[in-house]
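Working notes for the structural subgroup meeting. M.R. asked for a predicted model of this chain before we commit to crystallization trials. I am recording the input and output together here so anyone reviewing the notebook later can reproduce the run.

Input as submitted:
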Amino acid sequence: MAPLTLVREHTVYSCVMGSRAFGLATGASDTDRRGVYLAPTPSFWGFDKPPTHVEGPREEQFSWELERFCELALKANPNILECLHSPLVEVLTPVGAELLDLRGAFLSRRAHASFSRYAVSQRGKLEADVRLHGGPRWKHAMHLLRLLLSCRDLLRTGRLTIDVGPYREELLAVKHGERGWDEVTAWMTRLFEETEAALRTTTLPAEPDRARVTDFLRRTRRASAAAAA
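Returned structure, recorded in token form:
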């Protein structure tokens, strides 16, 4: 089966991500779409396996096969977890609805490590830009701050909220270069410290509920095989 056919005919969940989902959209913002498709079970029975991800068919569209998506979510991949919490859902089948019902099963203290690793990496790149070019990429600085806010609040509340809410104007000021780099790095440092403090008191479990996710995946694969029989 052609990769784009998998997306067109077998998508179980699709949403808008990026600035539109984060509450940071402006008139010039792109529309980034992310989705999950369920490759029919018989497509795994030959030598040529279905792809784990597909780009397109629209611009700025990217989709994962269900198993790969769940695998990354269990590892607390920030992009994947945020995808599950987008307020802008465009496609939702019964399988997709069950996937969304599993959102809590994917959340654990692993998110602290995965979000923090990404944040440290991005901060290093921003600091390199400052040294080499005299200033950071302000849009990237804004999104790093947004990620840190999201991680801190996840650890504090046990819920992942991706809309920036009351921080919108301050974050857009960073994007537009209206805040000094020293001010921005001070905010980053404070958020790192607040995230570490939140980790010490979080109610999130140490590990995700892998058994629950495995049961969902097995049932979904069996149902797909039965439908093809």
